[in-house]
Amino acid sequence: MNTQRFVLAGIAAFAAMMVFNFLWHGVLLEGQYMATMSLWRPQDQMGAYFPWAAGTTLLLGFVLAFLFTRHYEAKGIGEGARFGLYTGLIIGLMAFNSYPYIAIPLILGVGWFVGGLLQGIVAGVALSLVYKQ
Is the dihedral of CA 67, 69, 75, 77 positive or negative? Predict the structure, then answer.
């Protein structure tokens, strides 16, 4: 394994997922979160917990980079998108699995599933762009 490319790929996946999360959750689903404000931490506490979210996303970026390198075939962006689709299904299903336990509207649960799916694809494409030969 090329360690330098692995590290850069992990960081790229992290950055891509953080930008995606901001756009998906912070912009597109903002109205859904505002409508369910009583379920979430107060806004003034959110910043204190941001390092947890960023840290787990960083770890996820490196886990995805590690898995990507195990089966890397140098087939370009399509390979990254396919890898991202598979991992995004896992991320999305795990996110949607919160729906039965948290009193959120179904549309938000579906938004978490679709967001997880798309997040995986975005991360997979980022990995393929950085890890190319």
Answer: positive
3-state secondary structure of 92: helix
Q: Which residue has the tokens 């075939």?
A: 73
CA distance 106 to 117: 17
Residue 42, phi then psi, degrees to nearest 5: -60, 150
Tens digits of per-residue pLDDT, 45-81? 888 999 999 999 999 999 999 999 998 888 899 999 9
Asked whether 75 and 125 are in contact (CB, 8 A), the reply is no
Q: How far apart are CA 47 and CA 45, in angstroms?
A: 6
Distance CA 63, CA 41 (A): 28
pTM of the prediction? 0.93
